[in-house]
Amino acid sequence: MSLARALHGRRAFGRAGFVPFLVAGDPSYEASLRAARALIAAGADILEVGVPFSDPVADGPAIQAAGQRALAKGMTLTKALRFVKELRKGGAAIPVVLFTYLNPILRMGTKKFAKLCGDCGVSAVLIVDLPVEESTATDRELERYGVELVALASPTTTDERLSRIGRASGSAVYYVSREGVTGVRKGLAPGLAQRISHVKKMTGKPLMVGFGVAEPSQARALAPYADGVVVGSALVLAGASGAGGVSRLAKKLVKALEI
Q: Which of 11, 92, 114, 138 could cysteine-pair with 87, CB 3.0–4.6 Å?
């Protein structure tokens, strides 16, 4: 199932898509697997699986700490792909997006990475530090195995680049709702609803909106505008209480996304 189909399907049933994020291997492989299953059971429409990386540029304190915990337990890109495969074997049918950086992919080799994504059931890949202007070769390799490439747009992206991002991205675009790194924020960025409408028009694609969305009230405010709402840091912090804590917050967020 494409990302766009998952998002449109959920909209048809009266709510915006719920797109939770977790770091594979945090605080352990098995614990993150339980958290992923809890998120799917709570109503996730698309699951973002973060690959821990030693030099992240987009991650805020909560996700950086999660990445360090996962790396300390031996998590790698190969194991993260295995993580997705195990989710699929357990019956996970929703789209799974791998959220990663370019260096681990280059080290593995783009062709091998793309093949493993297809073999393991990865639906899409979001490479945080891959400029859209340099994404063609990676996109072609992923496309060979039926995997989408998700491009990022931000508040500082020009209209010219938004059009290019719309052409380069798979069936959906990830919109970074504010400048800076991921993390829990008290409020949404000013003018966000208008910006979302503009980015959707310029890219021609449904938007998943993330960065800074943490509370049900924020998700509720975004639901009429965003096709999917991404929540990461708040769920990572809730994971300190185990899969139960993740599940409780996820259910509140799903309820808040009803329109």
A: 92
